[in-house]
Amino acid sequence: MTTAAACVAAATLTESATLTATIAAGGFFIDVDHAVDYVVFEQQRDWTPGAFLRYYLGGHVQRAVLVLHSYELFALLGLCAWWTDALALWGYLLGALMHLALDLVFNGEYTPRSISAFYSFTYRMAHGFSMPALLGQQADTLVLPSGFWAAFFRGATLRTPPPRPAAPPLNVTSTAWD
């Protein structure tokens, strides 16, 4: 939705088909690395959209390489865009940066660890790309809504832990003075 809004704004303000198309590409194609990780590193073979979505949103991911979701790649792309002043590269970078910013905001609520550090490729590599080590989250901490579209638009929610039993009341009727 935000990519579509950014594309409408770019088309309206600049009338540049190149900028508009590459903003769309940056906002969308950044997520290709999830599919690569799912098939190559997670070795999943159920390629249906529902299975893919349940796997990711359900917290089952064990390895997160996510090459396209990294500050280091953005720095490199930024340098290339600055060096070449290529409109298409600037557009891709804008779309992908918007996507990354939204990931930081919305994915941060699912982890007790630093979501900002997670988007550094070097940080992920230092942790062996291990999702439990990176985010400290387990599949049993997340609840998925039923149905593909509900899960797609709402995402997972954190399971509320069972309430702790109340501490037994203190016996204050007896004192050392008795």
How is the topology of this model organized?
Layout: H1 2-14, H2 17-29, H3 32-41, H4 49-57, H5 71-84, H6 87-107, H7 115-118, H8 121-126, H9 131-135, E1 142-143, H10 148-154, E2 157-158
Antiparallel strand pairs: 1-2
| H and E string | HHHHHHHHHEHE
Q: Strand count, sense and closure of the main sheet?
A: 2 strands, antiparallel
Radius of gyration: 22 Å
Instruction: Output the structural class.
Output: mainly alpha
Coarse shape = elongated
The number of helical segments is 10
- Uncertain segments are none
Cross-sheet strand order for the largest sheet: 1-2
The domain tally reads 1
In total, how many beta strands?
2
Average per-residue pLDDT, rounded, comes to: 82
Distance between the termini: 72 Å
